[in-house]
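Chain A, query sequence.
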Amino acid sequence: MEQKLAILCLSLSLLACLSDRTTTLDEQENNCNLAEELYAHHGRQGSYLSQKLLDSSINLCPSYADAHHEISVPYLKRGDYSSWLKYLGRAVELEPEQYLGIQAWCKVKFLHDYRGALDDFLRLDSLNPVRKRIIADNDMYSWMALCAAGLGDMTGALAYIDSSINTAIRDNGEEWVGMFDFFYRGNIKMALEDYIGAISDFDKQLKLSSNLIDAYYYKGTAYLKLGKSKEAKESFNQAKLLHAADGYHIEDPYVEMPWRVYTEEIESVLDF
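Chain A, predicted structure.
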């Protein structure tokens, strides 16, 4: 702790000395080296000392994108999206290929800014259309599918999720499809009234995630749409059993995920 405070005091003193004159190239390089040192010792994310060290790092080297990104994260988690976007937006300006995808998926999950997120993803894709991008454990096209679905464009959503799934199968096999991509595609097909296709995708998801409560629930809903009440009840009962035992939902510690099912929904459908 004392070492970190000493580094902080040194950086602030240096800033004060340099504030009234133009720095040379050598001084700028030294400042950025010190900024990297501060970044390396910023400590526990979101703490007062951590944010102070990162702020000093940015003041020393305004072009240091990593510091702009790191200082933004606690604001995102606390719900201060304006401050988050101010810092992360600067990181995106400095290194768009590295940080544009992060900005986009955060817009999807936290802000539900589907239009803004999709624009970011499309811009990122245009920077290097050949490169396959995995962002927060999902293929970029999976996120783009959720954007399109959020905008009500289910046909576009299907095209994006198909791209994600088909690429994974082509390159590595079905077991490498995104963690919940079949589930997402099943719900997109539900919206397009392709109930048979939806059931097929829910079955594929359940091969990969056999205790996923949400997949059984929506599979039952698809059967209901087809007028197959027996099969629907079997799926709903399985969802209820898993809910009471060792089943799990699509969840995130910070936000509600798309098509997440709750106890009341499961119980209500069993009375049909």
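Strands lie at 134-135, 138-139. Residues 65 and 91 are 4 Å apart (CA to CA).
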